[in-house]
Structures are given as structure tokens and as C-alpha cells.
Amino acid sequence: MRALIAAATGLAVALALVLTVTAIGSPAGKTSPKPLLTTIPEHP
Asked: pTM higher than 0.85, yes or no?
């Protein structure tokens, strides 16, 4: 019985966390217009 209560409590906490993050929304911002420059090693 304790396991069932613990599972229900964990599910409720997870659901509350998801709803909180959804209500707050994603942070405002934008991505960098510059592409990431990477170097590719030369093949021997």
C-alpha cells in the first residue's frame, strides 16, 4: 500500500511540475544568427 501511495505522490508532483513549467512558458530569447564553426580533421 505504501508503494501505491508513493507512486501516486510522485505522479502528482511530476504532473504539477509539468503544469508549472507549461504555465510559465519558454524563456524569451533568440538564437544566434552566426553558425557554429567547426573544424573537420583531415583524413590521412
From this structure: no
